[in-house]
Structures are given as C-alpha cells and as structure tokens.
C-alpha cells in the first residue's frame, strides 16, 4: 500500500497512567504523558520545516465496526495494525476510570490504562492488545475469522464484565486501510505520524512522551518548537475519530 503525503487536523493531549494495582510480579509503572498535536500543512512543507526523516517502516491500520457505528457509540474501538509478518489487534475502551480498575483486568503484558486529555476534557481509556500472525491477520481481514473469535480472554472479559457489551454484533467489518508512516524530527526528536485514508484524506500529528511530572515543560517545549519552525496546530482541537470512521464507512 502506497503511503501518500498529508494535510490536516486538531490537538490531542494524552496522559498515560499505569493500571493502579499491578500483579506482585510486575514492576511498578512510571506514569507517562504523551502530547499529540495534529498539524494543518502538506507533508512536503512539514518535511522541510521540521527536517523530517523516516523513523519506522510504514504500516496499515484497519478499524472494525458495523454500518451503524455501534461500537464507536459504545466508546469501543477495534484497531488492527498490520506491519511486517503479522499485526496487533487492539481493543480500546473510552471513558474508563484508570484509578478504580480491579487487579488483573488489564494484564501488564497485554495492555494499559491511560488518560486522554482533549482541551479541558480528560477521560481514561483502556487498551488491550493481541498479536496475530500473517495467516490470522489475513483470515480476519477476509472475514473468515470474526472479531469475537480473534479476541483474547482478557479482551472478552473486559467487554463482558466491565463494558457489558457482549455478545458483539455479528456484522462487524474491516474499515480501511489507513496508510501510516512514522517520521522523526531532528533534535529535539519528536515523532510525526502521517496517515492517509482510502479516499485520499490525509492527517498528520506530532507527539512526544515524557514522565507525567514533566508534562507542563514538555508541552511548552513542543509548542515552542512548532512556533520556531513556523508550523501551526489546526484550529479544530477536537479528535477526528468519528469523522474518520464515517469516511471509511463510505456512502
């Protein structure tokens, strides 16, 4: 899949926190913060202004929902990231209280709980991930395997016991692919993710991850870096998830 250049977006601030009660064998997780700013310039302009170079191999993203986008309406997102010899199938659940999760709900080797901050809005989100090989990935995309059959026990348990959305609709289908590539700036190093929808709509975001205690400093540093490079964040500071899903769903 060819990865194209990109145009547009909004501002997202994500504060990442560990599950509050890890198993005794787990090492304590240090709370992390991630700032993401969606940028409103063609990628060629961003490459020049930010001195971008490739950081990782391109990959594809597929999302799964039905024609009514009922999973999105429940705050659920099924995301398949395809690259190399396999993929990662992630269940992301919005509006979760990371501080109140019972032990074992989010196994340390399978997921995390984080706080997504959009402007003045802060919401917790749980992510649980399963790795798939190339055959499992192909079967899922070609609908020989369904999303419920591809989930781990931890993912199913969270859907059944916490979200109480189980069984899942039988008509969940792959929406995509979204083409992604990850670039990196020269010093200071920031990741820039460029994504292209099948209809050609393009987005890019710049991000950095730091310890939670350094959030304010990192935010000021990133804003300063963008200003000095002459790169402006988009006027619309809201997330683009609903818009992207509707575009992927088509008419």
| SSE run | EEHEEHEEEEHHHEEEHH
Helix content: 10-25%
Number of helices: 7
Unreliable stretches, pLDDT < 50, 5 or more residues?
Answer: 1-28
SSE class: alpha+beta
- Which term fits the overall shape? globular
Average pLDDT figure = 84
Number of domains: 1
How are the strands ordered across the major sheet?
1-2-11-10-9-4-5-6-8-7
Structure notes:
The chain has 251 residues and is of the alpha+beta class. The protein has a single domain (11-249), classed as Hypothetical Protein Pfu-838710-001, CATH 2.40.320.10. 24% of the residues lie in helices and 36% in strands. The chain has seven helices and eleven strands. The chain has helices spanning 43-50, 70-73, 134-141, 147-150, 153-163, 215-229, 241-249, and strands at 11-17, 32-38, 53-54, 59-65, 76-83, 86-96, 111-118, 121-133, 173-184, 191-196, 202-211. The protein has a ten-stranded antiparallel barrel with strand order 1-2-11-10-9-4-5-6-8-7, surrounded by four helices. Strand 10 and strand 11 form a beta hairpin. The longest helix is centred in the C-terminal third of the chain and has 15 residues, at 215-229. The protein is globular and about 50 Å long. Mean pLDDT is 84; it is low at 1-28.
């Amino acid at each position: 899949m060819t990865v194209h250049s990109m145009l547009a977006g909004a501002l997202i601030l994500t504060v990442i926190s560990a599950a509050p009660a890890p198993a005794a064998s787990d090492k304590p997780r240090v709370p992390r913060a991630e700032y993401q700013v969606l940028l409103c310039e063609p990628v060629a302009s961003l490459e020049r202004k930010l001195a971008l170079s490739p950081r990782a191999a391109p990959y594809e993203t597929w999302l799964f929902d039905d024609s009514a986008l009922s999973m999105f309406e429940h705050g659920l997102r099924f995301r398949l990231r395809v690259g190399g010899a396999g993929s990662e199938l992630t269940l992301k659940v919005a509006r979760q209280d990371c501080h109140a999760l019972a032990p074992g709900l989010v196994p340390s080797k399978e997921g995390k709980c984080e706080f997504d901050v959009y402007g003045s809005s802060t919401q917790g989100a749980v992510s649980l991930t399963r790795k798939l090989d190339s055959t499992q990935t192909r079967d899922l995309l070609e609908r020989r395997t369904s999303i419920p059959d591809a989930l781990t026990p931890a993912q199913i348990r969270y859907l059944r016991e916490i979200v109480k959305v189980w069984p899942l609709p039988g008509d969940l289908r792959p929406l995509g692919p979204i083409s992604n590539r990850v670039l990196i700036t020269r010093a200071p190093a920031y990741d820039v993710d460029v994504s292209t929808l099948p209809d050609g709509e393009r987005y890019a975001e710049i991000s950095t991850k730091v310890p939670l205690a350094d959030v304010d400093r990192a935010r000021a540093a990133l804003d300063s870096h963008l200003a000095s490079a002459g790169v402006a964040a988009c006027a619309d500071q809201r997330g683009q998830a609903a818009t992207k899903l509707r575009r992927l769903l088509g008419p």
